[in-house]
Design brief:
196 residues; alpha/beta; Rossmann fold; 46% helix
Length: 196
Amino acid sequence: MLAEAKRSIVVVIDLQGKLMDMVHRPRLVVAATQRLLRLAEMFEVPVVLTEQYPERLGATHPEVLELYDGLKTPKRRVAKVSFGCCGDPGFEQALDEVRPGLAVDQRQLIVAGIEAHVCVMQTVLESLRAGSEVQVCWEATSGRGIEYRQWALERMQQAGASITNHESVGFEWARDKNHPQFKSMSRLFKEGQLVD
């Protein structure tokens, strides 16, 4: 399915300090997530940001958190101790609050985060089982090592998630060049290549 702005929720999972220092291609993950958040703002798509045990692992990466804090679109920040977001009742509550009245099987979750083989994968698999559509932005998702990331993305895809990227999501939200946000989106994508 193509991403639809009116049904989408961007979910940013555990992009936190101590973890970010250990993952494969951390600068790419941060830069791609920043662009995804800017797209969410342009297309008025709500955002749910989670943090795994922040008292121990620290807050979200400062560059991501700064963008998140400045969002005007509906947003929620959820601290959790369960690995998969769906294991925390605050996550489901946050999804309901940012998209009130949208049934679980109508949701499209656009996912970024770490680690691909733990918190991201558990969240994706549980969300799929609940009936939501899930798209995972590969360049905004990582883990401790390329193999962890690779096999997690493959497992999520085999389970029914779509593997995508932030640019594809933006173009799907816009649908055509006449969308009021198309020029802003185009400028964003022309800002240069994402750092690796």
